[in-house]
Design brief:
The chain has 464 residues and is an all-alpha fold. It contains 20 helices and two strands. The protein is globular and about 65 Å long. The structure holds phenylalanine.
Length: 464
């Protein structure tokens, strides 16, 4: 098994594939909102510090576990310690639950791309368009299927011809698009009915100038927890993906440097997404910062209205949604790879057959979250739809638990040396001391804070 295992052709392929996983919907629909809400530059500085410490530690751990064991997440933990196979089961369960609903959202993105490309942007900007689309019968399932075929097709092509090649094409295009839209957004200017002139550059200030007004200790903790939660989701850690990709990383490729490159890529795209979205929303939504929402409402409701008010919805809307589509595709590909590699490694199954079986299973599991807006709209829990529930179970509960168990596993069961040894094969491991302190003491505390705050937020006890 081991000799035949796939491997990325080289460092660039690995970094672009892993960055493709990290750069996803979270960068586009959550980072800009959090940065604008949490004091602009203040949030960005905290996020950067966390990326270089907390993010670095979790990402290094996942990639090192993958490269050391040469296993997908399901069997990686048990290979290191027989009694900890259940952590592998948990970290394989996360992608299995995320893939169906992430691809369902990917289907919505395809729909919006087609709508803008065919010049129907004004329809998309109308009130209730989004709700009536996701509650419709057939189209969300068809779009989901189209998106899903693109994902599964890439996995069928294999690690090199599928994942690596597609990342090498998609990621450079994605960078060019995000830079182009960000520049465009910064040059925007709108004349409101009340005679006020609002510019994109004023919106830039909201994003980058640290706003310390009224900063209390409580608010600071809130910003910190927001940044930790965002970083955690954005780096695709604690969901088996980086273990799977790490298992394809050649031993001579500098693991420590690669982790730095992935973080740089992910953070740069998140900030560029902020530059692309915050100035545009500011200039075209009456200068009201609260217009900048997050999640699907930002992407599918607010932004189409902004594109419409700019008067060039067809061009800017199509370019924007193709960008989102590419980001969602590379992330979904990585989620599916975590599942497929796990099953192949655990059961010794043939890759193509596994992909087809996992594909059919995930497709079927993707139908309930779609129907949750239609015939099953009564199936809610505390106001959460089926899709929200799957999102909550994975992001808010399972991922932090997985990350916590992984820290405990590395720090107190197999010992940090096993990670040191793996990193040292290819790198000087300059941040080794930092890594040790983070994984033993700081990261577990951070993760518990994320877990508690996301549960309280979901229960409506606190509001972020
Ligand atoms: N990191 C991706 C993002 O920011 C999210 C993701 C989630 C990717 C789950 C893979 C799996 O959107």
């Amino acid at each position: 098994m081991e000799e035949k295992r796939n491997s990325f052709g080289g460092t660039i392929g690995f970094v672009l594939a892993a960055a493709g996983s990290a750069v996803g919907l979270g960068n586009i629909w959550r980072f800009p909102y959090l940065a604008a809400k949490d004091g602009g530059g203040l949030f960005i500085v905290i996020y950067l510090i966390l990326a270089l410490t907390f993010g670095f530690t979790l990402l290094t751990t996942d990639v090192a576990i993958g490269r050391k064991t040469k296993q997908g997440p399901l069997t990686a933990y048990s290979k290191l310690h027989k009694g900890f196979g259940y952590v592998g089961v948990l970290s394989c369960l996360v992608p299995m639950l995320i893939l169906p609903y992430y691809c369902a959202i990917g289907g919505w993105v395809i729909k919006y791309f087609i709508v803008f490309l065919t010049g129907q942007g004004n329809a998309a900007a109308a009130d209730n368009y989004f709700t009536s689309y996701i509650t419709s019968d057939i189209s969300p399932i068809i779009m989901f299927l189209v998106f899903f075929i693109l994902v599964a097709g890439t996995i069928l092509l294999g690690v090199n011809k599928g994942i690596e090649k597609s990342s090498k094409v998609i990621m450079p295009i994605l960078i060019i698009l995000v830079i182009a839209i960000a520049i465009f957004s910064l040059t925007l200017k709108s004349n409101a009915d009340d005679g006020a002139v609002r510019t994109g550059l004023e919106g830039l200030k909201i994003l980058v100038v640290p706003d310390l007004k009224g900063l209390t200790f409580g608010k600071f903790v809130n910003v910190l927890v927001d940044a930790m939660g965002q970083l955690f989701f954005s780096l695709s850690v604690a969901m088996g993906i980086m273990i799977a990709y790490g298992s394809y990383l050649p031993k001579d490729s500098d693991l420590e440097k690669n982790v730095g490159r992935i973080e740089l890529f992910d953070t740069a795209i998140a900030i560029l997404a902020g530059l692309m979205i915050v100035p545009a929303v500011f200039a075209f939504s009456g200068g009201d910062q609260s217009a900048l929402g997050k999640g699907p409402s930002l992407m599918f409701v607010t932004l189409p209205k902004v594109f419409e008010s700019m008067g060039m919805a067809t061009v800017i809307g199509s370019v924007f949604f193709i960008l989102v589509l590419l980001a969602a595709l590379t992330s979904s590909i990585s989620i599916m790879e975590a599942i497929v590699s796990s099953l192949c490694d655990r059961f010794g199954w043939d890759r193509n057959k596994t992909t087809i079986c996992a594909g059919i299973g995930s497709f079927l599991f993707g139908i309930p979250p779609i129907l949750g807006y239609n015939v099953w709209d009564k199936a809610t829990l505390g106001g959460m739809t089926i899709l929200d529930m799957m999102d909550f179970a994975t992001n808010s509960i399972l991922m932090p638990i997985c990350a916590l168990l992984t820290c405990i596993f590395v720090a107190y069961v197999i010992g940090v040396n096993s990670i040191h040894d793996e990193v040292r094969i290819s790198s000087a491991f300059k941040r080794q001391k930092l890594f040790d302190i983070m994984i033993k003491y700081v990261a577990p505390v951070f993760i518990v804070a994320i877990l508690i705050s996301s549960i309280l937020e979901a229960l409506g006890i606190i509001k972020f």
